[in-house]
Specification:
alpha/beta, Nucleotidyltransferase, domain 5, 7-stranded mixed beta sheet, 15 helices
């Protein structure tokens, strides 16, 4: 048995086949870099985006042959509005990083309606205010999963799963119903909203693909990575270190006691929903992870991100240099948008190798901050950490992460576990997997790294404090 997984990322889309033994084959991908027409704006052409995904899916099927189901994993909160009759987008899609509605979020917050610019709510209202100020048009809103399913089913289904819907900023805290106060305030007609479905279970056949395989799972990317790394039992935790960093904990059926953000800066998330039963999680966020390695390339210290390991390994230590990876501010636990990247302890003898090693260790230290925040907010103690993402391929970084967290780090057998997660959920729906325990038992890390040393976490905390509040106006923002 096999599942076609379509993985909708921010900078690329890809399709591949996940088999019952957890192997991933026949991958095809295409770049889908968003546009930045002005500072703070992140847009993309939704038609080109979905066409790229469909082309990848068809190329994979042509190579693999028939599959038993389709699974979808996707970037969250990017917002698309299209005409229900023509099926065409009515405005550029707004990416999840788009910040044009920061002012709207601040106004709503002052009115007692908490929203954030990386949620869909104010993005949707902004598009509707532009293309349908009177709210008379028959329009559909969706995140990229909804848009793909609409196209896969030839316009028959306007749906999204709860793991995605919970990131819209439109639901009540318990995830059961839309919040009428927010809908009324933003003048969002209920008719534009997708129907919310389970994360695993039959939706309909993908008639836009050869063989019309059934669509049997849809899940946000970080939740899919959680499933893909076998973190499906309460207390299991994973981290993804890509351009940014996300740490997610599976909590079970009991929702975290905080509505928006815990005292240590984590967020409650819907991990997935099956048979109308919600599994909850908590998420911690690092605003920049691999971005810091790309910065080293921009500076000319290394030629490519892949060279970071060799460069950093050419020295035994950072020689006292500390780097705080806050190029875009600090997420969990500080949530200081005015913090900036900072290098401490540099001397005349500091080399590019020392700086490179300090960058890798700094991202690892921030990873330890996320794990500590998740532990404090959930009350759980973690005995290991599973990781995926591009930085997980760097052995020095993985060792630094184990040393910073003081727990063993297990590296996923595939670079991006999102594909596995969507495949596992679709496989669960069609009987490729018998139950959740089989998914948990499927975890087979590529390597397990034990802690070998310890970092001075008090010195690290001091460095993070000094990097904070560099721009007080931005540090004052809170969503």
């Amino acid at each position: 048995m096999g599942v076609l997984v379509i993985d909708l990322g921010t900078s690329s889309v890809r399709a591949s086949v996940v088999s019952a033994d957890g192997t991933v084959d026949h991958e095809h991908s295409a770049p889908t870099l968003p546009d930045t027409p002005m500072q703070g704006l992140v847009e993309f052409d939704a038609r080109q985006y979905v066409n790229a995904a469909l082309d990848c899916a068809r190329a994979t099927l042509e190579q693999s042959g028939p599959v038993d189901a389709v699974g979808i994993a996707n970037q969250r909160a990017s917002t698309i509005v299209w005409d229900r009759e023509t099926g065409e987008p009515v405005a550029p899609a707004q990416g999840w990083q788009d910040l044009r509605t920061v002012g709207d979020c601040l106004v709503l917050g002052a009115e007692g309606i908490p929203t954030a610019p990386n949620e869909s709510a104010t993005k949707l209202a902004n598009i509707l205010d532009t293309v349908d100020p009177d709210r008379t048009r028959d329009l559909c809103f969706g995140t990229v999963d909804s848009w793909l399913i609409w196209n896969l089913t030839d316009s028959r289904h306007h749906v999204s799963d709860l793991s995605n819907a919970a990131i819209w900023g439109l639901l009540n805290p318990d995830g059961t119903h839309m919040n009428p106060a927010i809908l009324d305030r933003l003048r969002i007609p209920a008719s534009v909203l997708p129907r919310i479905v389970d994360s695993t279970g039959l939706i309909d056949n993908a008639t836009a693909l050869p063989g019309a395989p059934p669509i049997c799972s849809v899940l946000g990317d970080q939740q899919a990575s959680l499933v893909g790394q076998g973190c499906v039992t309460p207390g299991a935790v994973k981290a993804t270190f890509g351009t940014g960093g996300m740490l997610d904990v599976c909590l079970g059926t009991e929702r975290p006691p905080y509505s928006r953000r815990g005292r240590s800066g984590t967020f409650p998330i819907v991990a997935w929903r099956q048979d109308n039963e919600v599994t909850w999680g908590a998420e911690a966020v690092m605003l920049s992870a691999g971005t810091n390695v790309e910065w080293l390339v921009d500076l000319g210290i290394i030629d490519s991100s892949a060279q970071a390991y060799e460069k950093a390994s050419s020295v035994d230590s950072t020689d006292g240099v500390l780097y705080v990876p806050a190029l875009l501010g600090l997420g969990t636990p500080q949530w200081d948008y005015g913090a900036r990247g900072a290098l401490f302890g540099a001397t005349r003898g500091t080399t590019g190798a020392h700086v490179t090693r300090a960058v890798l260790e700094g991202v690892a230290q921030r990873g330890a901050d996320l794990l500590a925040a998740a532990s404090e907010d959930t009350g759980l103690s973690f005995t290991e950490l599973r990781v995926d993402g591009g930085m997980s391929e760097n052995p020095l970084f993985v060792q630094a992460l184990a040393d910073a967290t003081q727990v063993p780090v297990e590296v996923a057998p595939v670079r991006e576990a999102t594909t596995l997660g969507a495949g596992f959920l679709a496989g669960l729906s069609i009987g490729m997997f018998s139950d959740w325990s089989e998914i948990a038992d499927s975890w087979a890390p590529a390597v397990r790294v034990e802690p070998k040393a310890e970092f001075d976490r008090e010195q690290w905390a001091e460095a993070v404090s000094r990097a904070g509040h560099w721009h007080e106006d931005l540090s004052a923002l809170d969503f």
